[in-house]
């Protein structure tokens, strides 16, 4: 099963609440976040792809690619 992982900006409302946790865990560094909006696609617990920016068509293509 593929699972999307969203990484959003800390300047948004929910992001502000998560900022202390993210800083403590250093999540952005661990996942090599390059930009906001970044969506990581994982399958069976392993990252298989990522999408930087907002591109609905590209997201649909990537989901189809890894769907099984």
Description:
The chain has about 70 residues and is of the alpha+beta class. It has one domain (about 1-65): Glutaredoxin (3-Layer(aba) Sandwich), CATH 3.40.30.10. It is built from 3 helices and 3 strands; from the N terminus they run βααββα. It has helices spanning about 15-25, 25-30, 55-65; strands at about 1-5, 40-45, 45-50. The chain has a 3-stranded antiparallel β-sheet, with helices on one face. A hairpin with a 2-residue loop joins β2 (about 40-45) and β3. The longest helix is centred in the first third of the chain and has 13 residues, at about 15-25. It starts with a strand and ends with a helix.
Secondary-structure map:
Layout: E1 2-7, H1 13-25, H2 27-30, E2 38-43, E3 46-52, H3 56-66
Antiparallel strand pairs: 1-2, 2-3
SS-based class: alpha+beta
Tell me roughly what share of residues is in helical segments. 40-55%
**Order of strands across the widest beta sheet?**
1-2-3
Succession of helices and strands: EHHEEH
In terms of DSSP E residues, the strand content is 25-35%
What is Rg?
13 Å
Task: Supply the number of helical segments.
Answer: 3
Shape: globular
DSSP strand tally = 3
Number of folding domains? 1
Q: What is the makeup of the main sheet? A: 3 strands, antiparallel
What would the average pLDDT be, to the nearest integer? 75
CATH class descriptor: Alpha Beta
**CATH architectural name:** 3-Layer(aba) Sandwich
| CATH homology superfamily name | Glutaredoxin
């Amino acid at each position: 099963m593929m699972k999307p992982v969203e990484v959003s900006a800390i300047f948004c409302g929910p992001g502000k609440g998560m900022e202390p946790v993210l800083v403590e865990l250093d999540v952005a560094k661990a996942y090599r976040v390059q930009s906001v909006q970044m969506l990581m696609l994982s399958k069976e617990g392993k990252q298989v792809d990522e999408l930087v920016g907002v591109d609905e068509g590209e997201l649909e293509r990537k989901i189809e690619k890894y769907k099984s």
